[in-house]
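Lecture notes, unit on binding sites. The following record was shown on slide 14. It pairs a sequence with coenzyme A.
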Amino acid sequence: MTDLSIRDMIPTDVERVCEIIGQHNKWDKEIAGPFFLREFKENIAGLRRSRHFVAEISGRVTGSSGWIESQICAHGIYWLGWTYVDEANRRQGIGQALLDHVETTVRGLGCRKIYLDTGATGYDTAIKFYERNGFVNETILPDYYSSGVACYVMAKTLTKALAQSIR
Ligand SMILES: CC(C)(COP(=O)(O)OP(=O)(O)OC[C@H]1O[C@@H](n2cnc3c(N)ncnc32)[C@H](O)[C@@H]1OP(=O)(O)O)[C@@H](O)C(=O)NCCC(=O)NCCS
């Protein structure tokens, strides 16, 4: 896609990104907005613990993704951020371009393993998309999102270098 570009998310993108998220999941939409606003504030304060990107086609935001550094005691672990593509623009390579961009960025930060969480039901497309990109389901957390709604924790190892150097 020739006019596809990826850039950092800015505050004026939040409404549009939340609209895209809301197409798939109303609950995610509610928690994404405050998350992004906190991210902007932390970044201004010099605390870059997460970063989100948007995909644009002809100047219109069509998707988002990003990374969140693990706050648990582990080196080189990142989580995939809010990854959503406008339903009118799916299956055109936008999600792939966003995921490639995130992977390149976290590799540059020393990421050795990237995780993601996704719903065990209602996310078949996303699961296929992640599997195609080398993610494997590592565990299932029952009742994670709400009672009866489980979470798949998928992961992809990017490099074993850090783990080997510690040993
Ligand atoms: C998952 C999602 C981000 C993928 O974005 P996308 O732009 O449609 O994906 P792409 O066009 O880049 O697809 C890349 C590859 O993923 C796989 N894929 C994507 N959609 C697929 C589908 N519906 N069925 C099977 N495989 C699929 C294919 O292998 C595809 O490559 P191909 O088209 O050459 O066969 C998008 O479907 C989406 O926003 N879904 C709803 C929100 C969601 O579930 N987000 C994840 C939250 S954890």
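Take-home: The pocket of coenzyme A is lined by residues 24, 83-85, 90-96, 118, 123, 125-126, 128-129, 132 (CB under 6 Å).
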